[in-house]
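Go through this chain for my students:
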Amino acid sequence: MLRERREALGVSLAEAEVATRIRQKYLSALEADEWSLLPGENRGSWFPAQLLRISWHGVDGGHGASPRGRG
C-alpha cells in the first residue's frame, strides 16, 4: 500500500527519504512489509509515526514536505 501510494504521487524513494528522514533501505523494507529488516528499537513505532506525519503532496516536484504534515 505504501509503495503504490508513493508511486501514484510520483515520489521517488530518494524524495521520500528526504521528506521522512528514513533511509531508503528502510523505506523499501516498510513498503515490502519486511519489518524484520528494521532496527529493533524502531520496529512498529518511530517509522510508521514518521510516515504518518508527512504531507506527500509537498514532496512531489521537489518542494519538500514538513515532517509534521504541513508541507
Notes: The chain is about 50% helix and 0% strand. The helical segments are 2-8, 13-20, 24-31, 46-52, 56-59. Confidence is low (pLDDT under 50) at residues 60-71. Residues 13 and 24 are 6 Å apart (CA to CA).
